[in-house]
Amino acid sequence: MPTLPWRDIDTVLLDMDGTLLDLHYDNHFWMEHLPQRYAELHGISRAMAELEMQPLFERNAGQLQWYCLDFWSSELRLPVRELKLETAHLIALRPDADTFLAAIKQAGKRVILITNAHRDSLSLKLERIELAPYFERLISSHDYGFPKESRQFWDALQADIGFDPGRSLFIDDTLPILRSAREFGVGHLLAVSVPDSRKGPKDTAEFAAVGDYQALIAGL
């Protein structure tokens, strides 16, 4: 676990899925529940459903439409919003994420959520987990028209909130997004070691990783 130079950090930018919330909900929905419901609603086998869906997933990964429920509803001819409600009981905080949020807010840091999640996904999760009070802003990349993987997202964020990248901490569970933030000049970057509680630690490559939010607030 890294020790953060909190005196050099004014703004904390936080991802949502896999960072503050357990990624198990999203992984289960997209990899298990949605293919099963696609098979049932289109009258085909589960194996055929996966064969039809896989090229779509591969073609759109990392692009804004990858995160857009309207796009997937149209592509798959399914009511994706409604289907996400069927597994909403799996939405859960990562351990001590709320303790971390309370501590950094109490310390006077500027705390901003930046997520690639579609606004409908964001609303669904905020209905079940009370995250909003911890944040100055809740920003979806759909607000800007660019995913966090894109430099254009960071330019739009800078124009919107006017933060100092060098004095900012950003935590995310996706390596291409962390690399995009680094290229923009964000000074303090952390990956997430176990974004999905049902899976083991992931390789966070060149990035230090947070595994324990309690330990992260040491020295705050």
TrEMBL record:
Superkingdom assignment:
Bacteria
Output the Gene Ontology cellular-component terms.
Answer: cytosol
* Presence of keyword Hydrolase: yes
List UniProt keywords, sorted A-Z: Hydrolase, Metal-binding
Pfam families for this protein: Hydrolase
What EC number(s) are associated with this protein in UniProt?
3.1.3.5
Name the Gene Ontology biological process terms. Answer: DNA repair
What Gene Ontology terms describe what this protein does at the molecular function level? 5'-nucleotidase activity; metal ion binding; phosphoglycolate phosphatase activity
The record's listing under InterPro entries reads:
HAD-like_hydrolase_sf (IPR050155), HAD-like_sf (IPR036412), HAD-SF_hydro_IA (IPR006439), HAD_sf (IPR023214)
Per the record's keyword annotation, is Hydrolase included, yes or no?
Answer: yes
Q: Which Gene3D superfamilies match?
A: HAD superfamily/HAD-like
Q: Which NCBIfam families match?
A: HAD-SF-IA-v3 (TIGR01509), PRK14988.1 (NF011564)
Q: Which PANTHER family match?
A: GMP_IMP NUCLEOTIDASE YRFG (PTHR43434:SF3), PHOSPHOGLYCOLATE PHOSPHATASE (PTHR43434)
Give the protein name, as stated in the record: GMP/IMP nucleotidase
Q: Which organism is this entry from? A: Pseudomonas kielensis
Q: Which taxonomic lineage does the organism of this UniProt entry have? A: Bacteria, Pseudomonadati, Pseudomonadota, Gammaproteobacteria, Pseudomonadales
Gene expressing this chain:
yrfG
